From TrEMBL:
Name of the gene: gstA
Protein name: Glutathione transferase GstA
NCBIfam families registered for this protein in UniProt: PRK10542.1
Keywords per UniProt: Transferase
Name of one Pfam family that matches: GST_C
Catalytic activity, EC: 2.5.1.18
Gene Ontology MF term list: glutathione transferase activity
Chloroplast keyword on record: no
Domain named GST C-terminal: residues: 88-207
Domain GST N-terminal stretches: 1-81
Annotated source species: Rhizobium indigoferae
Length: 227
C-alpha cells in the first residue's frame, strides 16, 4: 500500500495507525505547490481534490479522506479491533462519533487558521475551536478518548492538536488535553511515525512536533524525534 502524505499533516494519522498495527506501508510525499509526488506521479490523477491523505491499495484502488482510511486500516487486520471495535459494538459508533467531531469541529476550522485569506475571521474561528476544546477536555474517559484503549480517533485528535502552537492556541488551558498529547507522543509507534516524517520536537515537554523547515522559518529550534 502507498500512503500519500505531507509531513505533520493530517496524513500523519493513518501513518500512525499503520505503524500501530504493523501494516506495511510506503510513504509517498506530495509537493503542495506542484502536486507532484516523490515518485514522479501527478497527484491530481490520484486524488482530484489535491489534498492528502490518499491510500493506494495493492490492486490500484484509491481511498481518500482520513477518517475513512483509518477505519479501513483498522478493519484490515484482526488486531485492528482494539483500535476500532467490530460492527454492532456501540464502542465502534463512539469512535466514529469522535472521528466526525474531530474532522468537522477541529480539523477544518484549524486549517482556516493557517490560511491568511481568512485572517479577518481568525478570531471568531479560534473562539469556536476553544469552545469545542473545552467540551472535549471534559469528555476524556480515561487516558484516551473512549477509555483505556488507543483508537483511530485518538491518532486523529493527536495530529490536529499538534498544530496548536502554529494556530496560536495554547493547549495548556485544557490540562487533560495537554496530558493526552504527552501520552500519545510517548507511544513507541507514534514516535516511529514522527521520526519517519523527519519531525522535530520544539517544546520542553516534547509534546508538539513540526518539520525542520517549518521550525526554521518560524525562528524556532527543534530536536529530532527518536523512537
Amino acid at each position: 500500500m502507498k500512503l500519500y502524505m505531507h509531513a505533520a499533516a493530517c496524513s500523519l494519522s493513518p501513518h500512525i495507525i499503520c505503524r500501530e498495527l504493523g501494516l506495511d506501508i510506503e510513504l509517498v510525499q506530495v509537493d503542495r505547490q506542484t502536486h507532484r509526488t516523490s515518485d514522479g506521479e501527478d497527484y491530481l490523477a490520484i486524488n482530484g481534490n489535491g489534498y492528502v491523505p490518499a491510500l493506494m491499495l495493492d490492486d490500484g484502488k484509491v481511498l481518500t479522506e482520513g477518517p475513512a482510511i483509518v477505519q479501513f486500516l483498522a478493519d484490515s487486520v484482526p488486531e485492528g479491533a482494539a483500535m476500532l471495535p467490530d460492527v454492532g459494538d456501540i464502542r465502534r459508533n463512539e469512535v466514529q462519533s469522535y472521528l466526525n467531531f474531530i474532522t468537522a469541529e477541529l480539523h477544518k476550522p484549524m486549517v482556516l487558521l493557517f490560511n491568511p485569506i481568512y485572517s479577518s475571521v481568525h478570531g471568531e474561528v479560534r473562539a469556536l475551536i476553544s469552545k469545542r476544546l473545552t467540551w472535549l477536555n471534559g469528555r476524556l474517559a480515561g487516558p484516551y478518548l473512549t477509555g483505556d484503549a488507543f483508537t483511530v480517533a485518538d491518532a486523529y485528535l493527536f495530529v490536529c492538536l499538534n498544530w496548536s502552537p502554529w494556530t496560536d492556541i495554547d493547549l495548556r488551558q485544557w490540562p487533560d488535553l495537554h496530558g493526552f498529547m504527552a501520552r500519545v507522543a510517548a507511544r513507541p509507534k507514534v514516535r516511529e511515525a514522527l521520526q519517519a516524517e523527519d519531525l522535530e520536537a520544539f517544546d520542553a515537554d516534547g509534546v508538539y512536533f513540526a518539520p525542520h523547515a517549518y521550525l526554521a522559518s518560524s525562528g524556532r529550534t527543534g530536536s529530532p524525534v527518536r523512537p
